[in-house]
Amino acid sequence: MSRLITYIAIVMFSASVTGFSQKGKHTFEFSETEFLLDKKPFQIISGEMHPARIPVEYWRHRIQMAKAMGCNTISAYIFWNFHESQEGVYDFETENHNLAQFFQIVQEEEMFLIVRPGPYVCAEWELGGIPPYLLRIPDIKVRCMDPRYMAAAERYIGKLAEVIKPYMVTKGGPLLMVQIENEYGSYGNDRNYMARLKEVWTNNGVDVPTFTGDGPTTYMLEAGSLPGSAVGLDPGNSPADFELAAKMNPGVPVFSSETYPGWLTHWGEEWARPDTARLMKEVKFLMDNKKSFNLYVIHGGTNFGFTAGANSGGKGYEPDVTSYDYDAPINEQGQPTPKYFALRNLIGSYLPKGKKLPPVPEPIPAIELSAIGLQPFNSMWNLLPEPISSVQPKPFEAFGQDYGFILYKTELIGHKSGKLVVTELHDYATVFLNGNYIGKIDRRLGENSIDIPVTEVKNPVLEIFVEAMGRINFAQHIIDRKGITERVTLNGMTLMNWQIYTFPMNRQKIYDLRSSGKNLNKPGIIFKGNFMSMEKGDTFFDVSNYTKGIIWVNGHNLGRYWNIGPQKRLYCPDSWIKEGLNEVIIFDLHQTEAKPIFGFKTLY
Questions:
Q1: Where in the chain is the domain with CATH 3.20.20.80?
Q2: May I ask the CATH architecture of the domain 369-375+520-600?
Q3: Which amino acids are annotated catalytic?
Q4: pLDDT for 344-379, tens place per residue?
Q5: Which of 81, 222, 313, 382 could serve as a FRET partner for 172 with CA atoms 20 to 30 Å apart?
């Protein structure tokens, strides 16, 4: 009997580290306690990475890096709002939207695949992946059986199912499992909603096993798990966690669906640096006990553009930095870290005699760029569109805008100085009186007011320029509309009759920019510069000389920067830099003086 147990253990780990050949068709199913690949116990050792956060040119490199660390599986969140940015318009084909290409590379690298498609995913991603166009419905409810939400979610699932199905293990592909929603037990208790999502996948022809993922507590597992679906634990790091999950949802395997090698970072914090000794202890426990697990994340990537999310824990509004380096084993630029080699050595120590992990892939080259001079190019005040009249301010979504900025403008009649209160400002505003900057209001700091000084102007003009930062992606406050979402008062008087100027700063807006030729000295300036690059490689643009805003390179939005840190450098992949002349544009909310920027090889 003992020899049989030893044999099964060796087979299971041999499968887990070296992978099975993807040639031919495999079976994947559950016993009451184990995952079974081709009827044999199979330990999933998965590394999480997200196609939307990684340039498509580097997908294969990152997957190979995971394999060389000892993983046999890639887990991937799919962000609904990344693939349906406009209602009814889906993109599963261009650049890093091309999921079929990602799945194909996983298969070519002889790895297995887990897909985590939402419709809600969290992931420190804008609105947890839910498309913000739904927030244009004033009374929408999400992550429940609200028919308007469900109609959109079911359309999305139907479209994504067509992409997924050719890669299912039942069709000879690498896809083993699909997750149903994500950490639902942390949010709600609508079991009908969870059951309906599972049914929709089945109705769309997705016939691989499913799982849920929740924290290892009684209430989360009761509300979030589903009969017949494996139980993922976020995280599962002790025998008690696995015993509780087996008790709450018996008859299916339990695994650690999120084992955390790193952690997220918010603006204004120090970089997250979790204890590596704790991680190694957890992974050793999982390996010793043949427990399947998924490292969240093995490689984080980047929240390019406006995609970074936010939290709303006990500290209020906490927007995430642009980098999703996450202190992961593979850093933002794809380099292995000391944590990577520690995990590779640990996992590799469980290999059967004579087996070796693949060699670590060669690193992607990185380059430095000397000082790049920028000059004032234009101002957002010269680029405002025709205004929209509104009796009171409304959020972005009311004007069909999802991201960027909006200017709210009104004349002060009655009260003309005193305490201005912006109720439910989302998220950051620069405030101007008669064209002069008088201060900022920062939701992150719990600010909602500013003093309006006395002037000699008969009807002073008030302008509030609002930046939308990341929408909340976790817990009870994910309905996070942007802009001025309630009202503005001056000494208690509600201010009426506003002019609204939308300013999305999308790719088209950047493409259409032209020099103003005017004297630019009012905050809200767009700076422009050029640089030559004669060598290939990634770089990190250092914007320490600027205050708060967005940077574009050759039309690509690298994301937000903010001098409160900790992030001062933004990642730019080699594929976005041209040999020869390149263009950099910076839109800064505060800066009026042009200063140089630099390119470095590392994040810090």
A1: 2-18+45-302+338-348
A2: Sandwich (2.60)
A3: 183, 258
A4: 999 999 999 999 999 999 999 999 999 999 999 999
A5: 81
